[in-house]
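We give the chain.
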Amino acid sequence: SPLNCPFQAMEREVSAAFGKGEPGEILSSAFKLKVTREDICTLQQLCWLNDEVINFYMNLLVERSKKEGYPALHAFSTFFYPKLCSGGYKAVRRWTRGVDLFKQDLILVPIHLTVHWTLLVIDVRKKTIKYFDSLGQKGDNICKTLLQYLQEESREKRNLELTASEWTLRSLSPEEIPQQTNGSDCGVFVCKFADSIARDKPITFTQEHMPYFRRKMVWEIIHQQLL
């Protein structure tokens, strides 16, 4: 029965999601987001993940973090960083209505660089801003941009000056975090970096896990829960 063999049940559902059907059919909706069959199909092997999939997954991480024993988590949408870059602080000032960033433990910022996904992680507890790139590129300027954002947010929302010198900014090296060996898995790496970080767990996966992670993410998005 499927209960004794959840893997087979999962495989059936994933195959159905990847199967024939209307591209625009909504397979999951929550967090004011909709994920269509077409979006889910970006989780097929060697496809690039799109904003919808990444944003939905980040929201699943935030939901999980509300449970006992998880660090307090805020995740920005993939549209946050380009908006901040194009319009400065004013353009994103209202993105944190009802959220006190400085009461969070961790803040995730998924970043889309034309054809590549990366992840920036602000650890409010440790005062660190770290950049995770599965192709090993540096993101020092992205870290600086986010520190400036935090300084403005602190002035605006708390009337407090953030002491920049207390903060550590760092791009993780290819020796420190797993690297992708193809041109298509960056989005999955970003989601799984975020998953480990949001549990305060070390990052132990490798490129080999990606095909399984992709299928698991289909199930998690459709069922709106993390396995």
